[in-house]
């Protein structure tokens, strides 16, 4: 087997090779294979070293630089002993895929974001796969996994991962991810994987020993930036592209969600995102199934999703925080932080996002203290390229107590949030448990093995929220195992009381979206909105359909301007429009009607 590594600063590179354990490499002692084998410089690729050695699936190995200790491979396909342990060989050909799969694109999709470690109390990919039937019954088309790369300890969000080719062992490792994807495909579900390119975890991150993977030219909230434009950045970009393609090729994932692309510091003429999108499109052509990239972007820059032939970067879609912020202020009345701009006139903000895509499209942002964004060309950008959501892991988990909307809103208001999200023009996305108004919070939790880092994270989290008026003792300790335990979904409650009712409402709306073509019309310019903030009602026109929402506690008359319309779905009993063309909606309720 050929072992290769990029280590441009090293004078000597040795391969430390150990045999596989009897159980395949997950437990037990390993068999030492002697002193390190010297690697030779690759004459074709400056900075690269290579060596041939006998190895098989499960064989553990590492690279020793200039006589130092063995370090895990930067391109390690498996870390059986965690980020600081030796790497292990993975023979991807050994896995037997049982489901023929031609792919499932993002057009007309409904996504479901889940965190493997809290979706079930077991916190494994196999346990999550056992719950895929729930998602099929719900009607979603894609499951979006939060990051699965290795990180220190057992439990965490996954955004401090390292080893961008590997799968967190407590989740089940590489084989478990393949089993999950295979099971999802057997159920007809596409799989989206969240990947983090803008930073890597501070603990267990050995990349700086190998080469200039990071640069002080730019700085991010997490420290030195990933090197996308300084000397050595060609190889770093290739490293990230290679990792992305590995998930799509070796694990048969259908799309990748790219975390915080606005934090990718890149001044080169050809942006990294364009390079990555071109590589993904080429792989899709090669393997004959659709693949996609979804950006989390704070830039409000439509060029991210405009095709490369039209001067854009060519990604498939992006998250739309503007829709979330507008909807959140309408539902909750909150006005702190980045909600301030939306809270000035929340109903108008929601109207603008539903009809224009972005709220900030060159307008002044008080949160940023400057103008932000640029207009989205509704002719060039179909509505489905934006993802719309009422809740995400970020918007729940980055609250001091990780409280969901269900902690403060009535079931009726939750139903209104679902109606606006699932009948809206954007590709809908749900956050796990939202569909049954889960009572469990989703809090920030870590399991750092470095006591100094654990203490810094704990103190930093409390200081952050203390600055916003929270008492330190009210901010959950991320390192306390109880914080993760509280965040695990309670699957027993989905069949009880208002939880069951909310779940049925989500199923009804998703089925309606699938059945009625007007709800997946990509023409954003065709969306029409009317509202009366004083009365508390909001109405959306999607072709022949009317979505009406009443957030007031009392009944209201909503003027539809049509006399003949059938009620397709309603949270509370609703009659069709009267002679004056108005619909009477009970307090905190919503309905979908079809014009005859």
TrEMBL record:
Subcellular location: Cytoplasm
Site entry: Transition state stabilizer: 394
Region described as Disordered: 24-46, 61-87
Record-level GO cellular component terms: cytoplasm
A molecular function GO annotation: 4-alpha-D-(1->4)-alpha-D-glucanotrehalose trehalohydrolase activity
Active site (UniProt): 259 (nucleophile), 296 (proton donor)
Domain Glycosyl hydrolase family 13 catalytic residues, every copy: 113-461
Pathway membership, UniProt: Glycan biosynthesis; trehalose biosynthesis
Gene3D superfamilies, alphabetized: E-set domains of sugar-utilizing enzymes, Glycosidases, Immunoglobulins
Lineage: superkingdom: Bacteria
UniProt KW Cell division keyword: no
Biological processes per GO annotation: trehalose biosynthetic process
Catalytic activity field: hydrolysis of (1->4)-alpha-D-glucosidic linkage in 4-alpha-D-[(1->4)-alpha-D-glucanosyl]n trehalose to yield trehalose and (1->4)-alpha-D-glucan
Main localization category: cytoplasm
Family label: Belongs to the glycosyl hydrolase 13 family.
The name this protein goes by in its record: Malto-oligosyltrehalose trehalohydrolase
Gene for this chain: treZ
């Amino acid at each position: 087997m050929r072992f290769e590594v990029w280590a441009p600063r090293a004078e000597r590179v040795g391969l430390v090779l150990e045999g596989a354990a009897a159980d395949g490499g997950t437990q037990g002692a390993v068999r030492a294979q002697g002193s390190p084998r010297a690697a030779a410089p690759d004459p074709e690729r400056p900075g690269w070293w290579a060596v041939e050695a006998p190895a098989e699936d499960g064989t553990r190995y590492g690279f020793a630089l200039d006589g130092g200790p063995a370090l895990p491979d930067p391109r390690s396909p498996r870390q059986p002993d965690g980020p600081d342990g030796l790497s292990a060989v993975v023979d991807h050909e050994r896995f037997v895929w049982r489901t023929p799969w031609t792919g499932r694109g993002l057009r007309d999709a409904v996504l479901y974001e889940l965190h493997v470690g809290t979706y079930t109390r077991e916190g494994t990919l196999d346990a999550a796969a056992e719950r895929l039937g729930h998602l099929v019954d719900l009607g979603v088309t894609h499951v979006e996994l939060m990051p699965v790369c290795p990180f220190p300890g057992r439990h965490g969000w996954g955004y401090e991962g390292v080893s961008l080719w590997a799968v967190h062992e407590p989740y089940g490792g590489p084989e478990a991810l393949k089993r999950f994807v295979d099971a999802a495909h057997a159920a007809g579900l596409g799989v989206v994987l969240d990947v983090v390119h803008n930073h890597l975890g501070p603990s267990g991150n050995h990349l700086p020993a190998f080469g200039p993977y990071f640069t002080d030219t730019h700085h991010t909230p997490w420290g030195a930036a990933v090197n996308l434009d300084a000397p050595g950045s060609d190889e770093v970009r290739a490293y990230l592209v290679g990792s992305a393609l590995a998930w799509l090729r070796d694990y048969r994932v259908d799309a990748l969600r790219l975390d915080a692309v606005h934090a990718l510091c890149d001044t080169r003429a050809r942006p990294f995102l364009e390079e990555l999108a071109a590589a993904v499109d080429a792989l899709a052509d090669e393997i004959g199934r659709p693949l996609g990239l979804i950006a989390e972007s704070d830039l409000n820059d439509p060029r991210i999703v405009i095709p490369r032939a039209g001067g854009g970067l060519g990604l498939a879609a992006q998250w739309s925080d503007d829709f979330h912020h507008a909807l959140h202020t309408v539902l909750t009345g909150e006005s702190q932080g980045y909600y301030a701009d939306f809270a000035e006139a929340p109903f108008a903000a929601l109207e603008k996002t539903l009809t224009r895509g972005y709220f900030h499209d060159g307008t002044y942002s008080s949160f940023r203290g400057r103008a932000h964004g640029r207009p989205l060309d509704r002719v060039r950008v179909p509505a489905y390229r934006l993802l719309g959501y009422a809740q995400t892991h970020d918007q729940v988990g980055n609250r001091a107590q990780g409280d969901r909307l269900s902690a403060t809103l009535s079931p009726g208001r939750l139903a209104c949030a679902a109606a606006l999200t699932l009948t809206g023009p954007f590709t809908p996305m749900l956050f796990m448990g939202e569909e049954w108004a889960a009572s469990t919070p989703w809090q920030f939790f870590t399991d750092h093995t470095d006591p100094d880092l654990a203490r810094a994270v704990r103190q930093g989290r409390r200081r952050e929220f203390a600055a916003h008026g929270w008492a330190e003792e009210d901010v959950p300790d991320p390192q306390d195992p109880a914080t993760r335990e509280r965040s695990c979904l309670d699957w027993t409650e989905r069949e009880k009381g208002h939880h069951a009712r909310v779940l049925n409402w989500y199923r009804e709306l998703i089925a309606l979206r699938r059945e009625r073509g007007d709800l997946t019309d990509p023409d954003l310019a065709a969306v029409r909105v009317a509202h009366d903030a004083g009365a508390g009602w909001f109405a959306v026109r999607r072709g022949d359909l009317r979505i009406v929402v009443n957030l007031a506690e009392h009944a209201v008359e909503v003027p539809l301007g049509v006399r003949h319309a059938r009620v397709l779905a309603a949270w509370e009993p609703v009659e069709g429009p009267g002679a004056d063309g108005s619909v009477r909606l009970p307090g905190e309720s919503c309905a979908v009607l079809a014009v005859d």
